[in-house]
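pasting for ref. prot 1 ->
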Amino acid sequence: MRSVGLLTASTALIAATYGLVRLAYGLFLPDVQAELLFDAAVAGFISSGASIVYCLGAVLGFFVASRRPRLLVLLAGLSASLGAAGMASSEDTGIFAIFAVLSSAGAGLASPALVTLIRRNVVAADNDRSQTIVNAGTGPGLAAAGIVALVLLPDWRLAWFLVAAATLAIAAVVLVLDRQRAQHPDPAGEVHPVGIPSGSWLASHRQIIAAAFFMGAGSAAVWNYGRTLLVEGGADERASIAAWIALGIGGTVAIGTARPMSALEPRTAWTMTTLAIAAASIALALAPGSTGAALAACAVFGWGYTSGTGALITWTTRIDGARASAGTSLLFLILVFGQAFGASAVGLLISQAGLVVAFLAASALVLLATATPLLWKKHQSELIRPTHDFGGAANTQCRFTHASTRRG
């Protein structure tokens, strides 16, 4: 039961740091701008700064998560809650910007830390499914943010204060429920390597690194300009917020599909989820004025994005389970770099060709993310997770297999 509690708390921490803090920035932004009086350009700079700090948190997690996951959970809770509380109490744009940027560190720190905590507290056979469930916490967080917006806006200050308190409390619960303490090996008996990964480790990730970048770039259209597209297509403010809730509901559904998705080969899961993202983006581009179509498309997008990031975790775990936290940090870092690139590229295209063309171009980038692993023609070595002799042997056996694709 304790592992179930940790799984629930870990999912809630992802919901808080991603859905209620990092991604809710865009949801509350119009009301913040109306009070603090800064324009879209300043809002964009703040968002870019937040992405950079998120990446710094992910880099720290890359090197530290396998050894000090509890420290990262503590830092994630403190940075996200302090950032939210700081935004809530800010009286000018400069102070608001500082705390908004700080708040995004929590998400970058939380993901790799929770990969390690789940691996060492959950039975090995359930690890992939558990990782997918925790990662899907973004969905409930998005839905909760939308509900908070419907109830409290335009009082964005109260909303951020409540988010700050909830995030700090959730982080504390995660630390209490972690049975394994720092410096202890996980139940699988694996020794977590530290330091800079080898060149062969990086080479084994090259195709999913490229795929993660294209997914991030293509998904940036919905995350940054989805509400703009809906409003210009005729949706009112409440309808656009409802679409945000639909994103969260779609992400929450990913929890229910975690078991079958984790049972699939990573390439298969990746293909399914990225195709869902691309289809949803195309549907939004072609029918933004239809509330029903927009809500359905947002729900599909939320499921595809959340399940797709879960597929990345499963994939890096299959390549090298002992470095799963480092792999998660690397891939999420690349994903956010892709989003930073995509946000700027889509924004420029919107100014030149309009929202519809920009969303269709973003969909093409997601399709490129789908195709990248399927078209990769080079050999790759993968480290398969350890198998254990439960008949009484104390040793752990690791097997290497070489997976390759046939050249055309």
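and prot 2 ->
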Amino acid sequence: MGRDDTIAAMADEILTSIADGIATVTLNRPAQRNAMNGAMLTGLRSAFDDLEARRDVRVVVVRGAGPAFCAGMDLKEMESRGGARDPEGDVVGVLQRVERSRHPTIALLHGDAIAGGCELALHCDLRVMAETARIGMPLARIGMIVPFVLGQKLVEIIGPAHTRQLLFTGRPIDGRRAYEIGMVHQVVPAAEVETAAQALARSVADNAPLSLAGMKAVVQRAVSARPAVAHDDLDAAALRARQSADAGEGRRAMLEKRKPIFRGE
């Protein structure tokens, strides 16, 4: 457990390292605020697949390179496809893979976690956040609907009342507010967030591996009824929204840094 090992990622978009039982998975598109494109999603899934069987890993820290944790889906890639492809379907599968990891996971939120970035953090077991970072789901601001299973995750963690506020306003909240509503487990000054996340990771990694895996399985089993909820009609509504003129206008407005003009069509 004393060695430091760097694992070659499938793509440069994801970097993975291991030291003293703590694996660190880094989203590595800092110039794009770690927005999720196809290569990043493939790399993230591959990284968690590779870590699954490693006996020298006790806990996984997920973080972003550069100033942001993750800005959500890559809107340029999404707009280039005109909503024809289902990027949410891709991200849902990858997030569920992160959630199913047998290792406890910690999201280190040193910077903004928006939309898909917010959901990536929520699909980790624990979250440590800087006071100055922001977290939110601004999909209503670009004419889209949250995929059902991701909305379900929000309700599971912060309850329906705070989920409504977060989704209806589309406004991100800071670390203090996120802590108040139970969205994150610890909030600290920005200068201390790395130290705090590493201390939490160390406290987890020092525990018995079989206990960690078993207790994570208990929690996962306790919420295992979630997939039984029917949501085909909601998936269809999300698809219509993603392919709507409003969604195209919303994506372009976000990329052009202007206020969108929505027409309800």
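The chain has ten helices and ten strands.
The first helix runs from residue 38 to 52.
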